[in-house]
# Entry
Amino acid sequence: MVYNVIGVTSGSSLDGLDLVFVALTEVRGKWTYEIRAAERKAYTEDWKEKLSGAANLPARDYFLLHSEYGHYIGLAVKDFIATHGFDHHVHFITTHGHTVFHMPSQKMTAQLGDGAAITAVTGLPVISDLRAMDIALGGKGAPLLPVAEQLLFPNAAYRVNLGENATVSAQKEGELVAFDVCPCNYVLDSLAESLGRAYDENGQLAAGGVTDPKLLDALNGLAYYALPYPKTLTNKFGTGTVLPMMQGHQLSTQGKLNTYTKHIATQIANAVKLIGGEEGVVGEVLLTGGGAHNSFLVESIKELGLTVTQPDAQTLTFRTALMIALLGALRWRQETNAFASVTGADHDSVGGALWSN
# Structure
């Protein structure tokens, strides 16, 4: 069975709306994919301001923005389809929307982008609210993408995503386990921005800095890393804990980038070893996500003894939208797309709201 799906995502970095048109093929439980088109629609300054300020809006204005942003996504998808000539080829759209609130301890999560509005604009079925069911069942609603990674990259012993947060997933004793490892690009990009860069291309700034052992020890000693999995991080950990800790050290920004890169590598190695247990790290570690373009970070991970592989550049860049598309395909088939072993929910579930006109 082949599913032609458009996956849509928006990250907290506000660099834009990612759209991927992918052919997902399932044969006897085995999934393969072909990305036929992918692009990032950069946000205008007006949309950056709207999205960044959404959490502080009164309820009425928040839901007005929810509808407006849904129509915005719908128009972006409609233009994407027209540009690439995909009319009458798309089976459905899966959207993650833009996360504004994520409070699993209070069984609440909210992503902007009304699925009904997207369907109204495009005329296509839409799957949205992928985290909501897991959250309602007492799960953390994250990480969700390892479920899709396991299906698309089954031969990788460990799968590490270097996104805003670094995540790790693997099979252990016949069960999928996954958790957030540490803040990743969110912190690196924040440091690079203080030097007038959107990000540290290839890790060149970090490579030019010097590791501060005291700061590295302090970072590695944060209480989160001693918690058992399943566990997940919010961006507040980066902004409220990590960055203030680094600001308290008299160190150049390049030194902080270097030290934090080494910290990420250390925590990834620790996480992989934790899953590997007494048997140790057996097999290759697949790196995905935007951070896999950071050659200094990749080399720092290799220096700790891990054997790493990477998919093609397009998959690296649009990994999240690709995985969201597959989670939608699982929802379409009424198959499990959220595992309790990963999120800590009461039980596995099929997440996502389906909109169709």
